[in-house]
Design goal:
By secondary structure, the chain is α/β, with parallel strands linked by helices. The chain is 40% helix and 18% strand. An eight-stranded mixed beta sheet has the order 1-2-4-3-5-6-7-8, sandwiched between helices. The longest helix is centred in the first third of the chain and has 24 residues.
Length: 302
């Protein structure tokens, strides 16, 4: 059964890959943004250990840095998915770093977190060479990337989680974060609607005996965030998104925890283009421009 479920997941994401290829072929980068592409943040020849950096052409000094983590259900995608989104953010006066990370089943959840922290350490060591201001660092992620971004924030603030995930935090703090259509709660309501798929995802994240893995109960945002003083967080979502309930749950947690947060939740009737991660995939849409501008304004407050 496990092999059949895995083949189903691979087929599902292969369809997404074809759709994304068509979308990206129709998009063109805007003028005025420099691109430094395929920098290895781990020198092991693995294409999943590369990052891109974007910044306004002619930049001479340091600019605030946005670190972006792409989505794709933890087992699909790369930094190219968010390229045009990253370019649009860089055009607003930021350096944007978009990273690859190893996917399931090449690695597990711990391995993905370790890749993200390896990239953070590379930026700590080399970011100034690419105009990154280490005093003004922001992080964002969408869908599964939203989960990984939120988890990275929690791990950065918690030495116990650092031991569990076997990482060390970068020296720079996150000034603020934006979680877009985040899927940040792994346990509870089914993510796929199919018990067999959910079981296989837990095996991919945690191994053949998920509940025996110490990360099992410390992997969702609410589980990892308990007792932490989180940075300001903006939540972005929309009613047509099938995972909107996850953003509502995260808002509920942030409200109860007393943290600084803001929401940009689109109602169904407010726009034509409001599906899952719409403002990431199609940054030129009117609804996307409004959303991304509000995120930029949120970051600029901090």
């Amino acid at each position: 059964m496990s092999l059949l479920v895995r083949k189903f997941l691979q087929y599902y994401w292969s369809r997404a890959k074809r759709k994304d290829a068509k979308r990206m072929a129709a998009q063109k980068p805007g003028p005025g943004v420099a691109q430094v592409r395929d920098l290895p943040y781990i020198d092991d020849q693995n294409p999943m250990h590369l990052l891109d950096i974007y910044y306004p052409e002619g930049t001479g000094g340091l600019l605030p840095l946005i670190i972006d983590i792409h989505g794709g259900g933890w087992m699909y995608g790369n930094k190219e998915l968010n390229r045009y989104y990253g370019l649009s953010l860089a055009a607003q006066g930021f350096v944007v770093a978009g990273m690859n990370y190893r996917l399931l089943p090449e690695t597990d959840l711990r391995g993905q977190v370790q890749d993200i922290f390896a990239c953070l350490h590379w930026l700590e060591a080399h970011g100034r060479e690419h105009h990154c201001d280490p005093e003004r660092v922001f992080i964002t992620g969408d869908s599964a990337g939203g989960h990984l971004a939120a988890l990275a924030i929690c791990i950065t603030l918690n030495p116990e989680l650092q031991k569990l995930y076997r990482v060390t935090p970068a020296a720079f703090p996150f000034r603020a974060a934006a979680i877009s259509h985040g899927v940040c709660k792994l346990r509870g309501k089914s993510l796929s609607g199919f018990k067999a798929v959910d079981r296989e995802m837990f095996r991919l994240w945690f191994g053949n005996k998920p509940e025996e893995n110490p990360l099992y109960g410390r992997s969702g945002f609410e589980e990892a965030a308990q007792g932490l003083r989180l940075p300001p967080i903006m939540l972005i979502s929309s009613e047509p998104d099938q995972y909107h309930y996850q953003s509502l749950d995260m808002e509920g947690y942030l409200r109860s925890a007393g943290g600084t947060y803001r929401t940009k939740f689109w109602k169904r009737e407010q726009g034509k283009h409001l599906g899952h991660v719409f403002h990431i995939l199609y940054p030129h849409w009117q609804e996307s421009r409004e959303t991304n501008q509000e995120m930029i304004a949120f970051f600029q407050e901090f």
